[in-house]
Every structure is written in structure tokens, then in C-alpha cells.
Amino acid sequence: MSLLFAVLLVLVSRASSKNVVQFNVTKGLPGIHVGSAPSLARRGTHAEQLINNISGGGYYVSVKVGTPGQKLTMLLDTGSSDAWVLGHEADLCTDQDLQHLYGMPCTDTYDPSKSASNKLVKANGFRITYLDGGTASGDYITEDFAIGGITVKSLQMAYVTKAVRGTGILGLGFSISERASTKYPNIIDEMSDQGLISSKAYSLYLNDRRTDSGSLLFGGIDTDKFIGPLSILPMYKPPGGYYSSFEVNFTAVSFTYANGTEHTIPTSILDHPAPAVLDSGSTLSYLPDEMTQPIHAALGTTYSPDLRMTLIDCAHLHTPSPTGTALSHLTFTFSPTTTITVPLRELILDILPPSYSTEKKGSRACVFGIQSTALFSSASDDDDDDDQPSSNFTLLGDTFLRSAYVVYDLTHYQIGLAQANLNSTTSTVVELSSSSPGTETTGLPRLTGVSAQQTTFTPTSTAGANGGPNGGGAGTDPERNAAAGGGAGLGGRMPVREVVAVAVVTGVFTLLGGALVAF
């Protein structure tokens, strides 16, 4: 067990502040092992679904649902708004053919007959449609929901009986984006209404790619987890629209070489708006094609038609210049003074079997963490489906969020953003409270984190698929271990009705009766 993981476990129950709920967020699904090679069979589903199956992609939380509480694992998703749990009789859980098709078994499931607090709200009221055509559907219920040492009473959620993924989802978005025809208080609303937190806001710290744990704070900010001042950005609101997803204005991305030379790609080159959705439910990040082309060219990436993904030589993980580029990092700009730097190593996912290689002889292929949104257009063309979303959007998933500390304020429609202080082992929590009407101070407070990066990453051995350290030599990188040991997980599904505004807001997506979900 790493030092960071041990420290976070101490903090799981409650933060020191009265109305702050803090708990551990775990990368991937521990203890789930499915063969890595079969999961990458060439089949006609969206590529990131395959990637998530192999890498254990996504960040998960442990909860208890019902009375007595049934322990469940749920994907943490800032890009959706409903909480849903997987029923014990769900088709995926009882059909091995479906498990083989979608590359994972069920993990923890929920049985309403074993709970004294279960109540039916609407039979067959929940349905969501994913980009690959798969769906999740079931009933709306209310249940007691325990997380981080507190219990939310009678939380409305979906009880799913048909699914394409083996875990439930904890959606943390705006209730207006719920799948229910009649909107209801979701977990953020209920925590506030029941007096468990003083503000409808939470902070997300995913931490270093090479570690397995981060943290989530409901109602608070941890100033030890970020560097410098916390920038406060207004959420993007479309003309005549409404706030329905966590989007901020995004102005440029630049890539910097080891010698300091920088090349900037402004969003002004686009003929459409491209506010960035900050979505923890997506493993990868996506930029418009006009912005990704220079980045991919600078790194000498290749495109895999089989996976429908851009791949990169894994040598970039270990040497500064495998192809003479010496590119060191990317910088994302959201205002003249708000920037987040993402080291190149954070964008390289070493999760593919050795059979995948780049065009360079003898090289291994890794998945590149920034993909072009043109992939969605090509998928739409292949599927001959006019209802698929277009490619004019920006989505910043885990490959970006790991380098950032993000505060989501649903009351004041603000995003707090700062460079993450990776591998922090200390905690200083500031409780948030909603400002009273008429006061001068509204929204997120002006806070400053640590002055500089405090620690460095120290690899530690982890138990692998074979029960020994690192699974018999799989290495200390959790992603590499997942590929070798077959860690499963279908994280990274992003309901785009919940790329919301990319749908409703910017008019980029066409919304149908069911949500479209970009993984």
C-alpha cells in the first residue's frame, strides 16, 4: 500500500471541517482480472470502450446502498447527473456472452429485496443510450446512500437491469441534465438539502498517472493539493441557453520543446465555439481536429484504423526525444492568466498488448491521451447514422484532469482551477459555504495553495495478477500492470447530453430521446 493511499484512507470518513465530506477515489477496478488480449479483439465498438476495458480506466468510489448497506463500486463521473446502480439480475450479470462482448464481468451488484429502505419511484423510467449503440435502462428508485462516512437519506437513483458496463455510475452534474422526464434532487442537491454540506460545490484531485488514488471533497477545498492561486472561471453559458454541464472558455493549447521553443494553437482558428467540458468520466481528452493535427505531427503519432485511435511510440515515456522532437509538455490556456501544464508522460498510456506497434520497426505502441474529435465523425460515417454527434467540441478528460485541481461550484456556476500538487501527503481543508444574498462575497473564495510542487513520485510494488509484486515483473506503472494483469473497467463513458452544452449549449450535438454518450 502506498503512503498516499494510506493517508487518504485515514481521511475517508470525514474531513475535519463539520460540513465537508472527503473520501478516497481509486483509479481502476481493483481485483478484476480479465485477459488483456481478448479485450482488444477487433470489433465494431468505439475504441475508448476497449481501452477502458484494458486499462481499468476511470476513477471509482466505494459506497453502500440500502438498509443494511450493500457495498458497491461506482464510476465517478462529472459529465453525467444521475446515480445508477447495477441490479443483481441485470442482463450483463447473468449472460456470459454479453460479458465477453463488452469485455468485463459485473462487479458489485444491488439487490432491492434485501433492503428495508428501497422504494420504487417510476418503473422503466431510466434509459441512456451510448455512442456505440449500447444502452443502460431500468427503474427509478429511492434508497439510503452512504459515502465518505455520511448517509444521504432517500436518494433518487436508477436501478439498472440492462447494461453494457459492469459497475454503476455516480453522476455529479447539474440535475437539469438528468435522464428523468421529471427532474429530481440528485446527490449534490440532497447533500446540501440534508445539511451534510454547506455549499453545492466539490473539489476533485485525481493525482499522478502513476498512482492509484486521488480524493474528492464535497463542500470543501484542500489548499495542500494545488500550486499557487486558485483561478476562478465562470462556466460557459450558451446564448439563450442554460447551465447544464461543466464547461469553461478555452483559448489555446501550446506544446513546448525541451529547448524552450513553444508553438501555440489558439481556438480562434476554429469556425465554431469550443468551450471545454471538464469530465472525469472520460479517460482520454478530445480536441477539434484543427488543433490536434499540429500536436500529432510534432510527436510523430500514427493512426490505427482497427482501434480508431491515435497511437504514439511508447519510447516517449522513457526518453525525451525518440524521434528527435524533444517535446516536453503541453499547456492549456483558459484565460490570459489561467494555464494548466500537462507533462508529456501524463498523455501516454502504456496499455496495449505487444502485438500493437507503430510504423517504426521494433517500436511499441501506446495510446496518446489527446485524440481528435474527427474520430466521432468517422464513426458516424461508418455507422451511417445521422443522429451521431458532430466533431465540433472540446472535452478534457482524465489525461488533462490529473494535472489540475478542479473545484466545481454548482451554485455560482464557477470553476476553480489550479495546477495540481501531485503526490501531496498533507491536507489543509477549507470549508465552503453559500454566500447569503446581498453580501459582497459570492462564489468561490480566493485561495492560494502551496508555493511549488512539494514531492516527487516514488514507485512502489503492487500485487499483480499472479499474486506477487507487480504481477511477476509487470512493472510499477499501474497502467502497465493493468495491461499485463488484465485489470478491467469500463470507465470513461461520457453522457453527452451531458456534454450538455456541447450539445444544447453550442449546438454541436443533436440531442435525441436518449442521451448520447462519448466515452
From TrEMBL:
TM regions (residue ranges): 499-518
Pfam family, one: Asp
One annotated GO biological process: proteolysis
Active-site residue list: D77, D279
Signal peptide coordinates: 1-17
GO terms of molecular function: aspartic-type endopeptidase activity
Domain named Peptidase A1: residues: 59-418
PROSITE patterns given in the database record: ASP_PROTEASE (PS00141), PEPTIDASE_A1 (PS51767)
Keywords per UniProt: Aspartyl protease, Hydrolase, Membrane, Protease, Signal, Transmembrane, Transmembrane helix
Chain spans, region Disordered: 458-489
InterPro entries: Aspartic_peptidase_A1, Aspartic_peptidase_AS, PEPTIDASE_A1, Peptidase_aspartic_dom_sf, SAP-like
Biased composition (Gly residues): 465-475
Family that this chain belongs to: Belongs to the peptidase A1 family.
Protein name as it appears in the record: Aspartic peptidase domain-containing protein
Taxonomic lineage of the native organism: Eukaryota, Fungi, Dikarya, Ascomycota, Pezizomycotina
